[in-house]
Fold this sequence. Notes:
Layout: H1 5-16, E1 32-40, E2 50-59, E3 62-72, H2 81-87, H3 100-111, E4 116-118, H4 121-136, E5 144-146, H5 147-155, H6 168-174, H7 185-201
Amino acid sequence: MIIPRSIRKIKERMNHKKGPHAHLFKPYDGDEVVSLDCETTSLNIKEGEILSIGAVKIKGRKVMTSERLDIKLKPPKSLTGDSIKIHKIRAADLIDGVDMDEALEQVLAFVGNRPILGYYVNYDVRMLEKYLRPRYGFGLPGKAIELSHVYHDIIKWRYVGGDIDLRFDTISKQLDIPMLERHTALGDAITVALMYVRLKYGQPPASR
């Protein structure tokens, strides 16, 4: 039986409210958001393995590039030529990568109970939770913010009756935000963070 994520989170909060990770399940009342991205061997969550994880904190109107996470994992056996063509990450690039256990500890410490921002954020969250739940018994507790939904909700009034292009490259162009190190976890996380701040605090994008 598939348990809805909202119900699962309530159950996990009850199970861990007195454990060593209880702080992760307290309601977040700060003004920070964590932009997070994973590079993986496949877009199929069941088959894919994480190659790298990038994250950066957003505090109010500022992208805190000094407070970032840039993790490379040890190369998995599923790292093949087909996946390398997409993310350009080779086994040689991951030779100094860390074990998954260490990576997850870093992610939990960095993210805490803050909201998690991303482009197709549910994919990244589900990929991480595939490893988190067997080890800790819970997933990422913070709420997820989908960048494309934020973008859509802000500009939809300009396109009444029309389709809105939600592709990453299009959103970047519309917002005049350069794409930094495309298809690297940290580069995409920073780019998404800049887009989010532009949408929340800048001028609405012009119709193009």
